[in-house]
Design a protein that fits this description.
By secondary structure, this protein is an all-alpha fold. The chain contains six helices and no strands. α1 crosses α2. The two termini are 42 Å apart.
């Protein structure tokens, strides 16, 4: 587009990017041509796990959480993967970093539903059917609005010293 003498604002509009980005691209293009616009790869720090360690981590994840000490459910959370990388590879990993690592390996982090171990499902069902109906407040009647309807105030109805009291303005 820059070869065709298209201005940066038009480039930005066509590519749906900011004008600032298009101006930076034009400056790079003027300095180094098409090659200067080539991607330099992903930004940010490099992964501290080697390709071999990544393969091992994928194999550990395939084994499941129970094989690594989490027997309460079969869900890999990002926190568990961060702990696992610390245990197996002696590398600290943040929870967001573990999420990115899992996605890179083709896994998705799951968030387990937290339930109390002593929870009595039958008692909960009985309570919902019996007590909840008594506790629950009646709902709002159908068609009830969250705010009353209003209409524009008449200039004649305003006090004489109010702003715009004597002026009749129409909106079009």
């Amino acid at each position: 587009m820059f070869e065709q003498k298209i201005k940066p604002p038009e480039v930005a509009r066509r590519l749906r990017v900011s004008v600032k980005s298009a101006c930076q691209w034009q400056r790079l293009w003027c300095q180094g041509g098409f090659d200067a616009l080539a991607s330099r790869g992903p930004s940010g720090g490099r992964c501290r796990l080697s390709p071999r360690c990544l393969e091992k981590l994928a194999a550990y994840l395939d084994e499941g959480p129970a094989a690594h000490g989490w027997a309460e459910d079969q869900v890999w959370t990002a926190a568990r993967v961060a702990t696992l990388t610390g245990r197996k590879f002696h590398i600290s990993c943040s929870v967001p970093g573990a999420t990115r690592l899992m996605r890179r390996l083709g896994f998705s982090p799951q968030v387990p539903a937290r339930r109390v171990a002593e929870r009595d499902e039958q008692a909960v069902t009985v309570w919902k059917e019996a007590a909840w109906a008594e506790v629950k407040e009646p709902g709002r009647p159908a068609g009830a609005a969250s705010a009353p309807r209003t209409r524009q105030a008449s200039p004649d109805g305003r006090p004489k010293d109010a702003p715009g009291a004597g002026v009749a303005s129409r909106r079009s």
